[in-house]
Amino acid sequence: MSTAPASATRASTEWADRRRRGPTAVAEARERAARLRDAAAGLKALLDRPLASYYLVLGCTLLLLAVGLMMVLSTSTAYDLDNGAPPYSMFEKQLLGALAGLVIMWLAAKAPPRVFRALAYPLLLASLLGLALVLLFGPVVQGVQRWLIVGGNEVQPSEFAKLALVVWGADLLARKDRLGQLTDWRHLLVPLLPGAALMCLLVMIGKDLGTTFLLLVIFMALLWIIGAPGKLLVSMLGLLVFALGMLVAVHSYEWTRLVGFLSSQSSTNCVSMTCYQLAQGKDALGSGGWFGVGLGASTAKWGWLPLAYADFIFAVVGEELGLVGAICVVALYGALAFAGLRIARRVPDTFSRLAAGSITVWLITQAAVNMGAVLGLLPITGVPLPLISAGVSSLIATLAALGMLLSFARTEPGAAQALAAARPGVLRRLLGWLGVARPRR
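Request: output the structure for the sequence above.
Response:
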């Protein structure tokens, strides 16, 4: 007997089944498409609410801070035990810094933008003084000079210099814009360029390439947001690249890091300490798999990965929380970037727009540079991962900047009406404590 008739019968039966199921499959596809459209419409409606930016910044900040405290607890405990320090000593400092930073963020969230403008010049002068004191009295650690010892604790004035440049630069350009002076390119650059250059010079003398780069990023962000001509932006960008190149060429510390990064791209010429750190960071990331080895179960932090609690903490995040955890951290930074740029677009005054945009560009660039270095895509610059790496000065400065973003979010169109129309209750009282709304009596 031939099998051809049987095959033809099966094919005919399958074709008939597909024909009968065709309308059903089309209906199911249309239903799924409709559900996706409804979900997208619901998300858009949620984001269109006046206080959506506020909640998004607050939520991302608290989640990243929680992840950071967990990872500092995990990595610093190993470092303390390896170096004979009291257990949890670094974590205790980070926890106290987080509490102080949250108080500052709460106060900043409740303050109107005019308070920040009043602090512009005092912050600038205090930052310049702090950077000068570092060069005069700060200890040299591994060839760099970044810290002051105050009461037995390390303070890094360059972290607060970034916030000072944001506030001072935004206030300066907002005043010039109100006076109609920004049509002349000289008013765009003077005194903004000399002030930023002086700040960068003091940081460069201390051999801090990462912070110098971030200060230049803030300077460029201010010019871009205010609407500087394209030719001026390109000229400034070329000048800044030249300055960074000269810094790398003159200082052997940065040159060693650049050579280590380039040699890490070749497995046959990987002998420097920088290259070793990059290799260990990649191994830690790769060993985490999809879901990680478990919180606190990292092996790289036990002396294998240098600075696992600071510059390379993202490698331990990937090892302990896996690819899924690392992607969640990246997604939180992405949501923070979206919220910050949304605030900069919606706020009514020039100062808030400049400050919100510059803060967002600063924090997201810093996160990208840190994670890019861990992944081996960028040279190591020594900048911390915002809200996650150990470092009290960086944490407090970051939380203060995010508090400013929360304050700007309260000035978005419709925010005041939304606060006035909110119903009383436990949630409203909690939001009142956070500075979003005042509880009704």
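The mean pLDDT is 86.
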